[in-house]
TrEMBL record:
Residues 29-240 form the Endo-beta-1,6-galactanase-like domain. PANTHER family: ENDO-BETA-1,6-GALACTANASE, ENDO-BETA-1,6-GALACTANASE-LIKE DOMAIN-CONTAINING PROTEIN. This is Secreted endo-beta-1,6-galactanase. It comes from the Bacteria. It comes from Fimbriimonas ginsengisoli Gsoil 348. GO terms for molecular function: hydrolase activity, hydrolyzing O-glycosyl compounds.
Amino acid sequence: MICVAALIFAAQIPTVFIDPFGATVRWEGWGASLCWMGNPFGERDDVADSLFTTKLAQVGDQVLPGLGMTIVRYNAGACSPNEVDGRRMVLSKNVLPFRQIEGYWLDPAKGESGWDWSRDKAQRAMMLKAKARGANRFELFSNSPMWWMCVNGNPSGAAKATDDNLRPDMYGAFATYLATIAAHSKKHWGVAFTSVEPFNEPASNYWSATGRQEGCHFSPATQAAFLPILRAELDRQGLRRLPIVASDETSFDQALSTWHALGEDAKALISRVNVHGYPHTEGSRAAFAEAIAGKSRWNSEHGDGDATGLSTARELSLDLNVLRASAWCYWQPLDGGGWGLMDSDMVAAKIKQANPKYFVLAHYMRHLRPGMALLSTSDPHVVAAYDARKRKLVIVVENEKEASTKLLDLSAFHIGRRVAKRWITTPKGAERYEKVDDLVFEPGSLKIELPASSVQTFEFPEVTLPKVASRR
């Protein structure tokens, strides 16, 4: 006799469909900006191991699962102490030392001797450590042109935050600065940058002379005017194949506005569109993705102060399922309070403790690896990817709220072994990326229990995509 109550309960369980037939995104990888954290921590091997390998890394008194990042965003600094044409850098009183990034071009009047390639040693050291550990995508980006290229000599921004701060007569110099760093890096450091991004949140209205970091406003018109100059200088220095990406606006809505304002000639020079995730769950990811259809996109900078990582997981799920980003980068893995994956005293150069957020991101970064196909799902809280070479299906589920149950519909896949490996993190509890018992399931579906405030990873071995899907 069939238990009617059991059937009713089963029917009420939300079902998640994993779609192997829809459009997929080839995953490029996970990464971070070195920037501020490079100053105090750039020469530490343990930090490099934790971020750029998947082995266990001893960081202080903690043993951490390496995150396996493969993308490095290297910041071309804007600061120097020297005099240029009788001027010196004007420094905001609110900028802490670790947020002052040393620039390489000290004096344009001195030719090659005006460059000092020994500067910014610590950030460069971390980039080289990342490369030695397998990082394979390197983006050169700028928060501000060199201070002497700025209207007011201040690399934090203009007197009025809505004013552009790159001097009109310095467009060529700024292009030369970026192209020369890229060319020098390839020849002398063994790092061939795979993209260059000249702007950072350029249309935002908070880059002022009293700011707390390097920053520069660029109106969409200025961006459009500068991009062909940069392209020409890259080409002149033998970097014709180095793509330009833009515009790294702070939000999806601002990115959409800038994209519409750039004009077709400028858009044609942009090989990939970068955007930052600071509106978090707000803003129209879908509208932005539709507007730039045909170009790949990265969420090139995410950061938030929630040490649990639950906010990060929720937003990351949206970035993969709605924005359909092909890569995702955290702003500063080492930073103060909940902003860092590791809570760190940046001034004293001391790492305190890994936040739960570190272990939350381990679920995504260690299991969704470069080259995998990012699949579509019917649930915005569920991320799925397929590794064709290893015949492995990966599903990561985040649950911010109370305990619940979901049913993963796996009927579209051919699964040889009906066993799911499983890892769990409960940021408000005790579990930190713990391997737990495998789940054995019947053909077609898997019922999963989701504890309150949790993230879980499920790996399915011996999975083959249907022939229709595999031809896509």
